[in-house]
Structures are given as structure tokens and as C-alpha cells.
Amino acid sequence: MALIEITLPKTIAKALRLPASSPRRQQLKVLKKLLKKARFTEFGQHYRFDEILLSRHPGKKFQQLVPAHDYSSIYKMWWHKTLEGKRDVCWPGRIKYYALSSGTSEAASKYIPVTEDLLAGNRVVMIKQLFSLRHYDDIPFSNLGKGWLMLGGSTQLQQSKGYYAGDLSGITAKKVPFWFTPFYKPGKKIAKMSDWNDKLDEIVEQAHNWDISFVVGVPAWIQMCMEKIIERYKLKTIHDIWPNLSFFVHGGVSFEPYKKGFEKLLAKPLTYIETYLASEGFIAYQDRQNARGMKLSINDHIFFEFVPFDDENFDAEGNMVANPKTYMIHEVEEGRDYAILISTSAGAWRYMIGDTVRFSDVDRCEIIITGRTKHFLSLVGEHLSVDNMNRALQLASEELNVSIPEYTVAGIPSGTFFAHHWYVATDDQVDPQQLREKIDKHLKELNDDYAVERKSALKEVYLDVLTEDKFMEFLKSKGKVGGQHKFPRVLKGNMLRDWEQFLNPGIKAG
Questions:
Q1: pLDDT below 70 — which residues of the chain?
Q2: CATH number of 20-374
Q3: What are the Cα distances from residue 117, in Å, to 95, 96, 305, 346?
Q4: Going by CATH, does the domain composed of 386-503 fall within 3.30.300?
Q5: Among 175, 191, 53, which residue's Cα sits nearest to residue 118?
Q6: How far is the C-alpha of 370 from the C-alpha of 405, rounded, in Å?
Q7: How far apart (Å, rounded) are the C-alpha atoms in residues 246 and 299?
Q8: 10-13 long-range contacts, Cβ below 8 Å, gap at least 24?
Q9: For residues 118 and 345, is the Cβ–Cβ distance under 8 A?
Q10: What interhelical angle do 58-65 and 23-38 show, nearest 10?
Q11: What are the domain boundaries of the chain?
Q12: Domain GH3 middle, which positions (predicted)?
């Protein structure tokens, strides 16, 4: 990998009939590399990878011959064989590691294959992100060599017959390169601890020994960690103990709901860097200061396709249809929501990861995460995305000057019609009725479908204000504490019934 990418000036590229920087060409190069590596696997033989490689249009041929998969279909047909120890199923060799992922709403764990090739590709993207900091203004580069507190899952992995399983963050931390060890905190001994509360207590006790410049993790758990440190050492802000703290690398959820409460813990501003590191691979990262979106990793180890997130390609429950319409990177449009299909160096082929994204800048291949295919509300055609919810809540909280770090929404019956029930977390004083009205008002302004349905079948909006601890207690009750676990923004099915019973323990689950 070149540290400095050389791009031809557009005029010269045009004269040579070559694009200055072609995302399509980069993606086809990645696809061919993946196909060549996996062509002798069982999957590659079944779906005729050699034929695809010989095609004049390998991207289109790949879409014609290989079906799109969700977890259930690829696991049932292929991945279950790798758990049984079979080699060369979807990727060469035996799968030794699996990232356990349950998303944020499903109870059963998914076993996502993790290979050395995938981890190597992830590391390349991480290094690229690090080098992208040279484009940032007023970056204290001396801080880059100080401590990095990475608050992820336990590196104590579950051992089974022939493989290990655990959080991707735990697998990644377990394989930290030797040159990064001096900077890596909390260190391998603490990172190995499986009990989240014990791990957090040990981090708090060791905090005064570290000079931390970077904190990396999910906002809710990083905030909790800093609050405990401030309380333990009777500090005003986290900078009283870590004066060189300059960066917060976050991902997984929108940071906006946490920002107000987070910044109360600081003495000076941080540089926020958003990443998109999923169990299936390092998908995108923010490579420009104050950029609205994240740059897709299009020339590394992932081939991307995009499925319009609409009624033609998904049913009412967010399930993808059998043969969805798919687009490559050069065919997408700005301002339209897509579900992502990825093919990776771990044997995921045309695999839907469940997130929805929108291109904020097509030329730069920059995206924002708008939600998940199953985390949206459309009881009566309101088509309400998590992005809509985040924005409405942000506007309402700013107007009322309150911090709302967590929330979730459920669609429920209301007489013969329907309603939305909001549950928001804040430790500030707020009038629930006033907050409800402001959220409803902003959603009408943000989403025309919602505005229409609020006049017809979506008859009511309810809102309950809870403490932030209540949300955390529920996650603990589900065994989803620390690491990469996030609270689901939309509750449906069993998770909704569990939540209702948690809030009202005297009521039997239906």
C-alpha cells in the first residue's frame, strides 16, 4: 500500500481516456482479487468464479450467477459447514475465529467468519485512517504517540471445537501488532477480563497511570467510563487526569444524542472521528475534518453493492426479497437510502449486513448511516428512519436544552389505528408533553410521509421519560453490557415484549 496515492490530473486522465480516480475500477479490482483467491473453494466452484473472472463484465456476471444472501440463507447453505471444521467452504483454509454478533434486536448470536485476510485488510484501513489525520487542522501530532484507550469486548474468547468466538473488538485487540502494544490501553491483561463491571473498575483504578490521547469505542460506554473516573478521583473534567486527551474515535450509533452530555465531561474540545467497523469488516471511516459522511473502503478488501431500501426490494418487516435490484458504486445516487451487500476476504458473498446508508457525496464515495433494514417504523406507510428520529430528537433537545443520550421507539396499536411510543433517557428536568410535541413537529417537517399519516392512520404519539440507568439496566438484563453493544432505536417482536415486561414487571409477557 502506497502511503501517498498519486492521482492523475483530470485533464491528462481525460486525454488518456482514463478517469482520474475511478471507484468502479477500484471496486472491480477488489472483486477480481476476491474471486481469484476463492475460486477453488466449494462456494467458488458452485457459483463458477472462473467463468466470472473470464467475463468482459465481471461485476454484472457476478450479480447474475451469485444470489444475494442474508445471514440465515448463507449460514444455512454454507457457513454452518465451517463451524463443523470443514475447510475451503467460502474462503480458503479453515475458519479459526468468529465474531459473535446479535445486531441490536435479535436474541440468537450470529457467527460471522473472521479470517487473517480480513483482519489484515482491516489493519490497512486503520492505518489509512490514521494517515488521514494529516488533513486535519490544529492536530497535536505529538499526541499520536501517547495512549489509546480502546474500550471493546473481552479478548477472552469462547473456545469450541476447532475455533474461537467473541466480539470482533476482542478478536482485534487479541491480535494487536507488537509495535502498537506500548500505546494500547487498557493492556492485554485487563482487556482479557470478561466481566464488564470488573473491567471498568480496573480501568478506573489504573486511569491515573496512563497518558491517554485517544479514546475509542461506543459513546455510551466511553461516557460511562469517563464519568466513573471523574467520580473516583473527584475531578471536574476528564482532562484533569488526561490533559492530552484530544481524539474520540466512535462508531456504531449516531453520536449526536450523546454529544451534549459527553462534552460536560471535557475541559476542552475533542476531535471527533467517525468509523464504520462492523463484525464483517472495516467498511468506512471519516477521512476529512468536519466531513458529513465517511469514506467507503473501496480499494481494500470489500466489494460493495447497494440495494435501494424501498418496497420493491424489502417487505414490511425489512426482509430483502429473493432477487433485489442492486447497484455498483458508480451507479448510486445521492440522497437515496440503500441497504449494503458486501463480499469480503472472509467468505461473505453478496451478504446483507443489515445497515442502511445514504450517499452524502457520490464523487468522494462518502456515506452516512441512516439506520438498519429492520430498525425503521412503517406501520401505515410513514417510512420513518433512524436518521429521521435522531435528527428530530437532536432538534428538540437543543430547543429544550436537555441531554438525551438514549431513546427507543415502538409501533403499537391505538384503538383501530396505530401509534408510536417513544421512550427517552435524560437525567435533566423536562416536560414530557412538551418534548413529545416538539419531536412530533420536527418529524412532520423532516418526513412528508410521516406528516401525511399523522393526519390519518397514525393517530397518536406517546412519550415516557426514563433515566439513562434504566436503559443500561435493560441491556445488562439481556447480557449486552459494554463493548460494542448498543440500545436498539426501534423495538419490535420479542425485544419489545421483553422491554415492556422489564418496565412493568407485574405484567405477564404476552
A1: 1-21, 102-108, 138-141, 153-155, 174, 176-180, 252, 481-485, 506-510
A2: 3.40.50.12780
A3: 11, 12, 20, 7
A4: yes
A5: 175
A6: 18
A7: 29
A8: none
A9: yes
A10: 50
A11: 20-374, 386-503
A12: 299-361
